[in-house]
Design brief:
With 322 residues, this protein is an alpha+beta fold. It folds into 3 domains: 108 residues, Orthogonal Bundle (Arc Repressor Mutant, subunit A); 92 residues, Roll (SH3 type barrels), CATH 2.30.30; 78 residues, Alpha-Beta Plaits (2-Layer Sandwich). Helix content is 38%, strand content 26%. The longest helix is centred in the N-terminal third of the chain and has 18 residues.
Length: 322
């Protein structure tokens, strides 16, 4: 009984994305307390269920969630579809029909490319994360095209989580990072949301009228508008050339008999230091001297950190472990 109800909760949320505990308790013949307990067990099992308290609350499942591609093998999937089809023909049970329709929609969703606008293949997820980020991006694109309001759970750089309703207008790709440009009803203004920091997104069912957006004045310098530009000059090893060309652009690189040099005006600060450290010894900063000195000090600090126990690791980490 327990697992049957848990599956019913999962399929209901996969279809409607939001439902009240009271409604599910009535439909599934259990108490509201049991519904909350089963929802929590599903959450512990890896289903990103979100419980929102209050008058407009409910038990929610983000639109970015779908059943894993390996949830069924091909044979298991076909068997499940055939069994549910036969059961529905015999009983006419609406819950069975909902489960069957959901499985068929899932098959269609799994077969689509991870694409924007049908002809751009995008997989901006981390290694080992083949679908999560692309599914999230697809959700944002669909909401933008359909003018659908989204309920976002957003985590800022300080780790603070907030919930807000937004009207998505544009997807922006800058410096290898995706952003959602949306009207935030909480702030009463347009805001940029880093897609990677959106924990969950759910279509509220409400549609909005697009607001005027001046694309020429979009806040695309949001990361560096207060940063001082430095004139960077680099000596580049051959092995780093492709990465430097992709980072600074082909026009910023000069190849001669004296070697490979690159120049560009870039915002200084921590982001630039981190980027240069990522090249290791494959690039050398020729100027400005202050930047080279900062890199030297950073490298010395890293060396001291890893040389504390004389082995390059934490000597205490292995003590007492079996």
């Amino acid at each position: 009984m327990k697992f049957q109800v848990m599956l019913q909760i999962l399929f209901r949320l996969l279809k409607k994305r939001k439902e009240s505990a009271a409604r599910m308790a009535k439909d599934f013949g259990v108490s509201e307390r049991s519904i909350y307990r089963y929802a929590e067990e599903l959450s512990i099992g890896g289903v990103p269920i979100d419980i929102i308290r209050g008058r407009k609350g409910g038990i929610c499942l983000p639109d970015t969630f779908r059943l894993p591609s390996n949830f069924f093998t091909r044979e298991e999937f076909a068997a499940a579809v055939n069994a549910l089809s036969a059961l529905y023909e015999q009983t006419g049970d609406e819950a069975t029909k909902e489960a069957l329709e959901k499985l068929l929609r899932q098959e269609k969703a799994d077969s689509r490319d991870l694409a924007l606008s049908g002809n751009i293949l995008v997989d901006s997820g981390t290694w080992g994360d083949a679908y999560d980020f692309s599914d999230k991006l697809k959700c944002m694109e669909d909401a933008t095209e359909r003018r659908a309001c989204l309920d976002l759970s957003y985590i800022d750089r300080n780790g603070a989580e907030s919930r807000r309703t937004v009207e998505p207008h544009l997807l922006i790709y800058k410096q290898n990072i995706w952003y959602l440009y949306a009207w935030c009803r909480t702030r009463g203004d347009f805001r940029l949301f880093r897609v990677g920091r959106i924990r969950s997104a759910r279509d509220t069912g409400e549609r909005f009228e697009r607001r005027p957006v001046d694309r020429a004045n979009l806040p695309l310098k949001f990361n560096f508008e207060n940063a001082e530009l430095v004139h960077l000059r680099l000596a580049v090893e051959r092995s780093a050339l492709p990465d430097i060309e992709e980072w600074l652009g082909m026009d910023s690189v000069q190849i001669s008999e004296e070697g490979i040099r690159a120049e560009a005006d870039l915002p200084g600060g921590e982001i630039l230091l981190s980027k240069l450290l990522g090249f290791g010894g494959r690039v050398r900063v020729l100027g400005p001297a202050s930047l080279a000195a900062d890199l030297q000090e950073r490298a010395r600090g890293m060396l001291r950190q890893y040389a504390q126990d004389g082995t390059g690791g934490d000597a205490k980490a292995g003590k007492g472990e079996q």
